[in-house]
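@channel sequence for tomorrow's demo:
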Amino acid sequence: MSDDIKTMMTDIGTRARAAARDLAFAPSDAKEKALMAAADACWARRDEIIAANVKDMAFGRNKGLSDAMMDRLMLDEDRIKGMCDGLRAVAAQDDPVGEVLEDWDRPSGLNIRRVRTPLGVIGVIYESRPNVTADAGALCLKAGNAVILRGGSESFHSAGLIHACLQDGLRVAGLPEDAIQLIPTRDRAAVSELLTMTDYVDVIVPRGGKGLVGLVQREARVPVFAHLEGIVHIYIDKHADAEKTRKVVLNAKTRRTGICGAAECLLIHKDAKELGQSVIDELIAAGIEVRAGDGLSGSKPATDADWGTEYLDSIIAAKLVDDVDGAIEHINRYSSSHTDAIMTEDDATAEHFFTRLDSAILMRNASTQFADGGEFGMGAEIGIATGKMHARGPVGAKQLTSFKYLVVGDGTTRA
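structure tokens (generated this afternoon):
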């Protein structure tokens, strides 16, 4: 690593740590004002952002990105509007900092409160999606954290302009501009340095594919929120409603194939084979390649490699299972613990599915494309955490806090 990169990252870390100290007690209305102003700036500069994105799309094509990754990278006016709406939604949420989680009195005379407190400095490393710049910046700010953003090389220009809008908002609200910093280089050495900055960074959040997350988990000395791949299953039970099932499965696979909530494997109860086959036929008619297991007719036969694969493409695997326990056994073997769904009208079967599986998100009779912080009412998300420590599922502002205990006595001593 060059001395220049190390010096630059140390400077960024030092400034982020100083900003985090100020943000820890920043007024709620100042944070709200900053995010509303940032949304206004993004919308006012949407033509500039789209022009910058054109450069990034050209870079992505030359890099050989897949269609799914190119879709993630692309910004148009509708997506920028969605990004602005997300900023405003986060701004309008209650400030989590200082929220009293528990309050109790002890026989000793002590009053003890457990309250939310910021994590400090968060490093966010992400691929392709330039809108993550806005989502991560907004959520970290709302939770009183400073953030160091490192977007993918392919989103360099778009992310830079969105970051400039966020800083416009900070200036309007009188908050430190160092609260939201974007690493200004494509050099991968900056990522390696960020992962080891234990003196400056409190947690790393990777948002991207399995390769990125694996790299971060292997090399990071800073604690990591795990955001792994989305190997998403939908189980069609023998008690499934045919119309609901067709509608939900088609949406779960075809709405956007390149997001982590897209369905990747269809499990079909053997007694629902006729319904399952009709769903497969509709998927094929919609342009989806179906890799079918024994007893099913698809675009091509499935192989062992198709189970446990995140395609992020117009491909889905399909398999017959004996019953709900067969589906649960398959999911437990191949799932990434992201999102799994059941289509059934039977309450007992649904409860069995919910109880026996431990994915971060479990759904019944709903499209897995709802696995999203915005759809959960969080305004936005940094990603879906699939680990079991601290944050799990969509990570919004509340999940970007820790807590501390406030203990009050009255000259109280311990016997």
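heads up for whoever presents: The mean pLDDT is 94.
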